[in-house]
């Protein structure tokens, strides 16, 4: 995490090289202040491609560079359907979930769906030089943390993230609804602010009321 940013890796290279650092980043460094900027930087290429490709196509058409238009379209398709894009979107959500301040600032991108086709795996696993024998596994595999994630992983956990967000939305709406109901009527059914009975001896005002099968106890007059 200290070495990767100073390397000055360009946006398009992040799609092929960022997996070396980010594959398990949300599990290994969930509380680090450097994790979230690294994920945002890795996701920047996909937003840039989505925003700039239409303009590049128009420019190529106006200049008569028709051969380049197919290259722009292929690049945009590889970026939008990149397996790394799906993986980093999941990890950004995992990172933001326990941190409300970060979740509020997060601009959620699109998660993968099971029906998505032609997913591109643009990762380069051969960039790390391997001097091992051909009968041995490549050196790059020796420092992988767990199994290699891929298209099925991204699609599966994208579905999980959608379920989590759905349940969180339901839970939040119920809490807000109960809070609003309590503020409008803070006393239980059949009770009001003047319906209090004071006890003697202890000096602590205690109200005891029974509504159907529920007992309500209220301490009143406390500072």
TrEMBL record:
<protein>
    <submittedName>
        <fullName>N-acetyltransferase B complex non catalytic subunit-domain-containing protein</fullName>
    </submittedName>
</protein>
<dbReference type="GO" id="GO:0016740">
    <property type="term" value="F:transferase activity"/>
</dbReference>
<keyword id="KW-0808">Transferase</keyword>
<dbReference type="Pfam" id="PF09797">
    <property type="entry name" value="NatB_MDM20"/>
</dbReference>
<feature type="region of interest" description="Disordered">
    <location>
        <begin position="178"/>
        <end position="204"/>
    </location>
</feature>
<dbReference type="InterPro" id="IPR019183">
    <property type="entry name" value="NAA25_NatB_aux_su"/>
</dbReference>
<feature type="compositionally biased region" description="Polar residues">
    <location>
        <begin position="178"/>
        <end position="194"/>
    </location>
</feature>
């Amino acid at each position: 995490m200290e070495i990767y940013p100073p390397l000055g890796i360009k946006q398009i290279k992040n799609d092929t090289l960022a997996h070396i650092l980010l594959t398990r980043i949300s599990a290994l460094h969930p509380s680090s202040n450097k994790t979230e900027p690294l994920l945002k930087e890795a996701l920047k290429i996909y937003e840039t491609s989505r925003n700039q490709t239409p303009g590049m196509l128009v420019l190529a058409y106006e200049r008569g560079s028709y051969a380049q238009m197919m290259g722009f379209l292929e690049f945009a398709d590889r970026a939008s359907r990149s397996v790394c894009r799906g993986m980093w979107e999941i990890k950004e959500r995992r990172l933001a979930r326990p941190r409300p301040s970060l979740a509020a600032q997060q601009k959620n991108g699109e998660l993968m769906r099971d029906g998505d086709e032609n997913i591109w795996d643009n990762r380069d696993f051969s960039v790390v030089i391997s001097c091992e024998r051909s009968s041995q596994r490549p050196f790059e595999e020796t420092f992988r943390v767990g199994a290699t994630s891929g298209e099925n992983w991204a699609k599966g956990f994208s579905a999980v993230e959608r379920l989590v967000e759905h349940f969180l939305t339901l839970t939040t709406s119920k809490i807000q609804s109960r809070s609003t109901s309590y503020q409008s009527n803070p006393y239980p059914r059949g009770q009001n602010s003047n319906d209090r009975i004071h006890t003697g001896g202890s000096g602590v005002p205690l109200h005891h009321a029974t509504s159907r099968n529920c007992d309500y106890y209220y301490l009143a007059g406390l500072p």
